[in-house]
Amino acid sequence: MSRTSLIGAYNTEFGAFVKKDKATGLITDTRTYYDLLVEAGRGAIADAGLEARDIDAVYVGSCSPGSFINQEHVAPLAAEIHPDLRFRPMTRCECACASGSVALYNALYAVEAGRARRALVIGVEKMNLLPTPQMTHVLACSSHWPSEGSRGMSFPMLFAEYAKGYQAHHKIPTEDLERMLWTAAALCYRNGAENPLAHVRNGPATVEEIMKLNEPDAKGKCKNMMIAPPLRLHDCSLVTDGAAAVVVALSAEVPDRRRAAEIAGIGHSVERLPENVRPNMHELMAGKDAAAKAYSEAGISASDVDLAEVHDCFTINQLLSVEALGFSKDGRGGHDHLEGRFTRDDRIAVNLSGGLKSKGHPVGATGVSMHALIYKQLIGEGIGVKARKADIGVAYNVGGSAVSNCVTVLRKL
Fold first, then answer.
1. Which domain CATH number covers 74?
2. Catalytic one among 97, 236, 313, 406?
3. CB–CB of 32/129 below 8 Å?
4. Angle of helix 315-324 relative to helix 285-298, nearest 10 degrees?
5. Is there a contact between 249 and 4 (Cβ–Cβ < 8 Å)?
6. Which three-class secondary structure state does DSSP give residue 303?
7. How confident is the model over 135-187, as pLDDT tens digits?
């Protein structure tokens, strides 16, 4: 089988690119979906040392642009990157928060099949134009609507079910679980503080700082309010605008091997959509399956991995992810965090970017961003915190309530 490699990447700054008038409620766009998509695409092509005419196909990962910005049919927007992209095939891919990874996989299939020599992959989302209730509704449409979204189940509630299942199955005292979750959050905040592209660069960097936010102020308000027990505000990822892009080519045809990272293996495994029909709400069964597929194809084991970007949409999912990837034994993910693992100095560094918790989570862009930033680490151009060792990296991107699971192994050429 022909192998493909990433040969260029670009990540826009992530953030809330709007102005909100508190008096009128008016929300004004300051950095549009269209701007972000074009910036990322142009940046990745330039980073690959190519011209637009060298791109044979474009794949765009975007979750809900029709609801977020009233724009469907978004793939053709890539033609605005440069006139030379006119008449190229362009396809939008949607798989909730895994839209970006699925777009990358479709580009990989096209290149490996010989239908394209080089493909551009863009992930993009603009979430902050909607008030919180509307934004929450849009995201809930990626749940199982009859049994979850239509009954008022938000994604914090859906992942809270995993937190409760994990706690019950492994018999973890509530106080211990809280410290596990806050340790994961603090780790990401510390890393994100050094990422110039991150949405939040001044988050609470220790468990003690997070605990102080749990205390009510003089007005009785808590800055780390409970969202869906046991998950609090600082257990939840951010509502973010942003884009990222990568360029894919056959490994045998990369122009500069020093700036290439091979896609050594992928695993794409899908869980049943409704949570109420799943047998194990204490582990990511489809995530484990995706990891096994990716590791097998790459010919590696978990112990070979140097760094990983995992889908910490909620802190409980960071614990579950390190177990699904085989970095921790079942039930030990939280304990390993408490013992100081997964930092920049650990054998396997996790979320050096700051993760979804600090870097941000523009849902359609997240998967591409994970791959883009791991790629940068592997070629020695890491953004923010630099990896201690960077030969093999893993991206684990999740769509929905751990439904669409995408695991990618990237290896330095």
1. 3.40.47.10
2. 97
3. no
4. 40
5. yes
6. helix
7. 999 999 999 999 999 999 999 999 999 999 999 999 999 999 999 999 999 99
38 within a domain of the structure (yes/no): yes
Amino acid at 361: H
Instruction: Given the residues 311, 337, 361, 371, select the one marked as catalytic.
Output: 361
Domain count within the chain: 1
The reply to whether 97 belongs to the active site is yes
Q: Is residue 179 part of a domain?
A: no
**Cβ-contact 144, 274 below 8 angstroms:** yes
For 302, counting Cβ atoms within 10 Å of its Cβ (0-12 exposed, 13-18 middle, 19+ buried), the class is: middle
Residue 218: per-residue pLDDT: 80
Distance CA 220, CA 91 (A): 50
Give burial (CB, 10 Å; 0-12/13-18/19+) of 223.
middle
Candidates 223, 204, 205; CA nearest to 213 is 223
**E strand residue ranges, 12-129:** 18-20, 27-29, 57-61, 90-93, 118-125
Query: How far is it, in rounded angstroms, from Cα 355 to Cα 240?
Result: 12
Which residue range(s) make up the domain with 106? 4-132+240-245
Tokens for 291? Answer: 């990891």
What lies within 8 Å, CB to CB, of 137 at 6+ separation is 149
**Do 173 and 183 contact (CB within 8 A), yes or no?**
no
Amino acid at residue number 124: V
Q: Is residue 186 part of a domain?
A: no
Contact 187, 350 (CB under 8 A): yes
Residue with token string 């940068």:
376
Alpha-carbon distances of 171 from 161, 162, 166, 175, rounded to whole Å: 15, 14, 8, 12
C-beta atoms surrounding 59 within 10 Å: 29
- Tell me the two tokens of residue 404: 């669409």
Tell me the per-residue pLDDT of 380-406, one tens digit each, with 9 for 90 and over: 999 999 999 999 999 999 999 999 999
In a domain, 20, yes or no: yes
Cα–Cα distance, 266 to 281 (Å, whole number): 24
Which two tokens mark 359?
A: 């870097």
Handedness of CA 259, 194, 211, 128 (dihedral sign): negative
